[in-house]
Design brief:
single chain, alpha/beta, Isopropylmalate Dehydrogenase, 2 domains, eleven-stranded mixed β-sheet, 13 helices
Amino acid sequence: MFETRPRIIFSIGDINGIGPEVLCRALAHADVVDAIEPVIVANSRLLGEYLDALPDLPRHVFTAARIIDVPSDATLALGSMGAAAGRLAHDAIIEATSRVLAGEADALVTMPISKEGMHAAGSPHPGHTELIASITGGDPMMILMTRGMLVALATIHVPIAAVPSMLTAPLLESRLRALEHTLRVDFAHESPRIAVLALNPHAGEGGLIGTEEQQTIAPLLDRLRAEGLDIDGPLPADGYFARYSPEAHHGILAMYHDQGLIPLKLFARGAGVNVTASLPIVRTSPDHGTAFAIAGRGVADERSVVEAIEIAVEIVRNRSKAAAQLRPERENPDTG
């Protein structure tokens, strides 16, 4: 159990986007100040230039935080994508992730990156999730959530044409078991209820609009239900979200990125959070990108970062409680 504030480490993201702005504003929220011990992984020179460019930001929160300096030859060019800024974002993620993995912090909250910028810098990874997993190990599952809706993805950053062939029974079973575990441990739902969306319109219409439901999804769900998992589906996605009720299910498994994240982001209205499950560390992120179009204008909304911090703290505390509950069983095994 945590008797002190959790130490949360932040990777700065793309220095030319809105990440430093929304992080600065978020750390000034009274609830956040009282809840965490912040550590920021960034380039100190560029962070200072960023604050000079936006003088209305509450810069005292960065002054009070511990800064871990990452070398960079990038220049501040707000609103612009560049390889040097991409390299800084990449290096900050590696540094921050490694420190959480080493036990120097309790959770990682990542600011938005430019995937194009990181690719220009030579990174082979399509995004945050894959880069972090390459360091920590594990089979990451992407969850986006807000208060009242939690959506996990069976497939993540892949072309839509590749989705059907990827939806094998082993993959879906892995995702469902990971989601059930996450809901039970990280979000403290004793008996998680899960909705599984169909791949095809009308859940395949009995095989007339695709056979994935009949051949793969439904048989797997029947088997898992027989084992005791509380699962509904496969459910037509449009009808499910049209009649969505937060009380019906604790989590939703969507088959592909936009199927789940378009309704989630409409529901969240700017306060969504990305949670990477099935990793040995706690990692959350705001659900938006670098927003280069408004970078430097001082109008970015920090609500998603505030919620990302709150959820990271919640998961850290819930994992600590779960570990404490298991400890007596390990220390006092039943010897019969």
